Amino acid sequence: MARAMAVVQPPEARVRQAPSGLGLWLWVVACLGWLLGVAWQWQSVRLAPAAWFHGGVALGVVGLLAGVWLEWRAPLRWRRLVLLPVFALAAALLAWGSTGWRASQVLAQRWPSHLNGVDVWAVLKLEGLPQPLPPAGTEGRALRWRLDAAVLRWEGVQPEPGWRLPEHLTLYADWPAFETPRAGQAWRMRLRLHAPDGLSNPGVNSGTRSAFGRGVRAVGQLRPGADSLQPAGDGDAPSWQDRIDRWRQGVREAILQRVPSAREAGVLTGLAVGDQAAIASGDWDVLRRTGVAHAVSISGAHVAMLGSLCAALTRRLWSRSSRLCHWLPAPTAALWVAVLGAAAYALASGGGVPAQRTVWTMALMSALRLLGGAWPWPLVWLSCATLVTVWDPFALMQPGFWLSFVAVAVLMSAGERSLEVAIAGNPAQSASLRGVRGPWRWLRDEAMALWRTQRLVSLALMPLSLVCFQQVSLVSVVANLLAVPIFGALITPLALAGTVFPPAWDVAAACTGLAFQGLQWLSDLPLAVWAAPSPPMWVAIVAVLASFALALPGPWRWRSLAWPFLLPLLCLPEPWRALPQPASGQFAAVAMDVGQGTAVLVRTAQHSLLFDTGASLPAGGDMGVRVVLPVLQALGVRRLDALLISHQDNDHVGGALSVVRAVPVAALRSSLPEDHALLARQPDRLPSGTWTLPHQPCAAGQAWTWDGVRFEVLHPTQADLQNRQRLPTNALSCVLRVQADGGQSLLLTGDIEAPQEQALLAREGAARLRSTVLVVPHHGSRTSSTPAFLAAVQAQAAVIQAGRRNRYGHPSPPVVARYAALGVHVDATPACGAWLWQSDGSWGAGRCWRAQTRRLWDEASTNDGP
What we know:
Elements: H1 2-5, E1 16-17, H2 22-42, H3 50-73, H4 79-107, E2 119-133, E3 142-155, E4 168-176, E5 186-194, H5 207-213, E6 218-222, E7 229-231, H6 240-258, H7 262-273, H8 281-290, H9 300-318, H10 322-327, H11 330-348, H12 353-370, E8 373-374, H13 377-391, H14 399-413, H15 419-424, H16 429-437, H17 439-469, E9 471-473, H18 476-497, H19 503-523, E10 529-531, H20 537-551, H21 556-559, H22 567-570, E11 588-591, E12 600-603, E13 608-611, H23 623-634, E14 642-645, H24 650-653, H25 656-662, E15 668-670, H26 677-680, H27 682-685, E16 695-697, E17 703-706, E18 709-715, H28 718-722, E19 735-739, E20 745-748, H29 754-764, H30 766-769, E21 773-775, H31 787-793, E22 797-800, H32 813-821, E23 825-828, H33 829-832, E24 835-838, E25 847-848, H34 849-852, H35 859-862
Parallel strand pairs: 1-8, 4-6, 13-14, 14-15, 15-16, 20-21, 21-22, 22-23
Antiparallel strand pairs: 2-3, 2-5, 3-4, 5-6, 5-7, 9-10, 11-12, 11-24, 12-13, 17-18, 18-19, 19-20, 24-25
């Protein structure tokens, strides 16, 4: 019995080491070639013909087979010279071709453009976790949901020649209050769909990229009406994935029902079933500012922890049976149970990239241990990265992939305890060491190990955080010393235990509330976050490599040579920025892509002005958070010298409160009434005691000069403001003219209409209105842009800020034709994305951000073919 319970170790003669010499390098270059091939494909602007992908796959396979043959038969003296490039190129071609083929299968699906705005019928099967959203109406009789669905069949819809209809959709639906949508259900629905699209701005993730990664080729709405939603008999037998998703949804509902606090319930839901959408945006801000967002996501550490618990429990129980131990040694059983338990948790949590990485690593290291293998960490690391991208090539484009693998590489290279020891070695090792060293010494050593781990990981991930999110937490090391033990060793196990013993959620909720109090205090510190503008790609790559070199073990005098390569990322020179700071006497403008709304940033040499802030959204959030703040951060704007709100319509002021809460604002100008929420709430919503926000109504005749650039308010008049009760809100729109030292000028018009344009002509005269660039009044409405006004402005370029397929029909075709007849170059944000212009003429009539950053997935938003 004692022998059966003993740990079985492979004899030394049977130990299989990693491929040595040439074999090791061949494996390394093959993995690197694969990763480079995948990245090469995702950097493409347009998809190559399908024959190229087939050729790439064929050449890759032939190259790998030829390399294997040469490795066996070729003379040793020239193997290194030939085999390394052959394996690298063959793996890169195989990855490029296979990734391109998979992308072509998604892009071959297309929603017919002539069906935009037309009701269609389809039978759909719901997939994944339905996400509840705030009710669209005020009566609360219907709950709004975000749903992912697979198309079982279309009814009466024919694809365009040479294309397939979409196979996966994302829907927003007002669901009956008595019904809850669940994964695997089949419904016949009346829909209104369009191709996926997204806003395109500096520092803002592309919505089309996310849809493309999920295979979604059409999005839209469930149409209102009693007959728009009908049960269908198709898909009654749920798949194994549907059963998992239904279990996840049941756990989420049980947590929300038991835990009254939305914050604690959201965190527990995220940790138990991976539903990160349950965590409120304000709570995410706290987690990001403190650098502990990974602690409330199902990360690799959580998956590995569950695997370790499964291994320890299996080993203890398995060892009690001599029959089982003779059939299969307890350590071997513990290995595979750990892998299976981790895989089950990864599936139950949605299978994110960090979870995939952990499962592949555990499986590979378990297989090596059973075979008596001992691979160096770079080989394990590269192999797991390759396996993840073989399974899902699009994972390479997700920030989580890089953050996860860089963190693990740092820990592996620094000699931290590997996953093999954690899940496959002696689970009682920690307890035995605690008994030998004593509890206090053991606790001190564990605390020092945690401090060293967090210091290394924070240093390595700092450049990546700046590259991906343009900010890094300066309190992350301290915050993680609090969060990692509490969330990892206490709250996460309790969240999982609550699925079988619900009272555990009560304890977990109490611990979560206490932890958030400490995190909130750290988040409110003045220097909790360091922000930096978005860097060029080559600066990002150099900085990431430099931080990795700093985190590696070795003599400090050599590692310190990497510090200078981090400086450009921390203090990015102006010429390398997306929008360099203008010279004295000049200005730059960014008309942001905020959908149906207005937000324009004007920068001079030392000052910044924001004209409007976009809309607040019925589904929650606003364009201030989603677009304006990320753009300001990506462009390196840390404060606003003026915020000018043209008028009180939602699409112009909806994001203002979020902006003033997040960015120091020196002054506010607007035509808002005194009882407007932005003015009424400003004292208690601003950062505590650091800034004041004096308000001044904008009125014709106001003017000031910044860095040689003149700003003039042309509308409304004082009489208009005094008679605001008798005027529509659009009539009170502030009109601002910005003129550079050399005469180049920009006219910002808000939502003025024909009467205001006529009044401006009569009051100011044509000479005062003449401008180089015009932000088109009222989003291109037919009630604005009168011929007399356009003749007076004589603009060389115009930009229209409007939402794609907006319900108002902006911009009006006759208005667009009117600009074209005058020879005015017109850019509209739906096709252009954010529009950037410099008054010194270096960028001509302006640049479109969408054209500068176009990738394969952006074909979804333009309906261009592959």
